[in-house]
Design a protein that fits this description.
2 copies of one chain form a homodimer. By secondary structure, chain A is of the alpha+beta class. Chain A has 2 domains: 3-103, 2-Layer Sandwich (Alpha-Beta Plaits); 107-243, 2-Layer Sandwich (Alpha-Beta Plaits), CATH 3.30.70.660. Chain A is built from 5 helices and 10 strands, in the order βαββαβββαβββααβ. Chain A has helices spanning 27-39, 72-82, 135-142, 195-207, 216-222; strands at 3-10, 46-47, 56-64, 87-95, 105-115, 127-128, 147-150, 165-175, 181-188, 237-244. In chain A, strands 1, 2, 3, 4, 5, 6, 7, 8, 9 and 10 form a 10-stranded mixed β-sheet that branches. The longest helix of chain A is centred in the first third of the chain and has 13 residues, at 27-39. Chains A and B meet through strand 4 of A and strand 4 of B.
């Protein structure tokens, strides 16, 4: 059966996250419903991973395997015509049959955006953090996240995931284009439930001087969520990219 | 009397433009009301110029002249606390007494953003133009806008402005950061009512092959609005910057 890859962007503000749920407004459900309407047969899609309620994506990836080949350009136009304007399928292409959006993903890249003075344009995608935290201190602290660690301390305590080991390749705050705005870019092989948001909340506590700059290694070692900081709100978080091996 | 300069950002989506109007929801009214509440005396502000209903600004400038000096930092925090989150005062500073936000403005810079495939994040700030127009042709046509011209052909016909001569310094389409998004950057000494939007509408007609690439000079010469293209919608337009002499 042919396999099609979808590249999906969404504004998560009014959605209850990615993952299909009974009686709930989720992004996966909306896309499956648009595909089913367009193709006139039931379609299920597999995403690269979940995003929480209110979290956005520029580069979510999913796949589906219809029984026969379809007209990609026509389907793309039709699906985007059906979907609400907060969800856009940016690309739809035939890939090798074995492609799996979740199992084949090598890296995920997230951005978390903050503004430290009130922002009007794009406020929907920034957490308002005041006063301006010490970005240099936050970057010094974030260096300790790089590498392979057990991330239980940054995982929602009710998560059923047993393997809590993640490899982080990049974790750095950058100056954004608008005045007094910054973003935290973090890339890893995988992320646990609530992980980026609790990392950001903890780093902002450090940036505000409420937690020691050198406290991350002991925190990771504790493997206890209660030792980490609060969770930063969902609105600032965007799944920017899912990286696959190039031959996929 | 001291003069204070305000640098203002707004998401114009739900506002009836800048200019104060009886019984209408305008940005100037909202800011004057927030200043009046904070300072406990009536405040009027003078903006660099109007923006239409639905148009955004990142760099609108205004000034006001209270009878005595005020605490800028405190007023800034207070005003932003009162204003709805679609308006943000980004800076508030004491300037030389003679500063006038409108008369001293030397240049205005606007951006008009389009997306040519559906966009979810930031869709509020892009006009969806499909199919993708010929950007090179639009840039070739836009070159004819540079310099001093009578812009009557691009001015709303009911405008009462008598002097229709404007000098355009830059008028160019650029590739934006997201896939299949572009923005038109235009800088001039002044702009007439509806001017940027009718320029953009006309250029997109050229980019879709419905109007000749070399048609702009004759169109300007005609000085007749009926010869230009339709007005591009307000949502794509942002007043990015108002430029003053540096000594102000």
């Amino acid at each position: 059966m042919p396999t099609y890859r979808l590249d999906i962007e969404y504004d998560g503000t009014d959605w209850h996250g990615w993952q299909s749920q009974p009686d709930d407004r989720t992004i996966q459900d909306a896309i499956e419903s648009a595909l089913t309407t367009s193709l006139r047969f039931p379609v299920s899609i597999v995403g690269s991973g979940r995003t929480d309620s209110g979290v956005h994506a520029r580069g979510q990836v999913a796949h589906f395997t219809p029984e026969k080949n379809i007209d990609e350009a026509r389907l793309l136009a039709s699906v985007n015509g059906i979907l609400p304007d907060t969800i856009a399928v940016r690309n739809l292409v035939l890939v090798k049959e074995s492609f799996h959006a979740r199992y084949d993903a090598r890296k995920r890249r997230y951005r978390y955006r903050i503004c430290c003075t009130p922002l009007a344009i794009g406020r929907q995608y920034h957490w308002f953090v005041s006063p301006t935290p010490d970005i240099a201190a936050m970057n010094q602290a974030a260096d300790a996240l790089i590498g392979e660690h057990n991330y239980s301390a940054f995982c929602l305590s009710n998560s059923e995931t047993k393997n809590r080991v993640c490899t982080i390749f990049e974790a750095r705050w950058h100056d954004d284009t608008a005045q007094d705005t910054w973003y935290f870019e973090v890339t890893g092989n995988r992320f646990l439930h609530g992980m980026v948001r609790s990392i950001v909340g903890t780093l902002v506590e450090i940036g505000h001087g409420n937690r020691d700059v050198g406290s991350i290694p002991a925190l990771l070692k504790s493997e206890d969520r209660r030792n980490a900081g609060f969770s930063a709100p969902a609105l600032g978080l965007t799944l920017e990219e899912v990286v696959y091996d190039s031959f996929k």
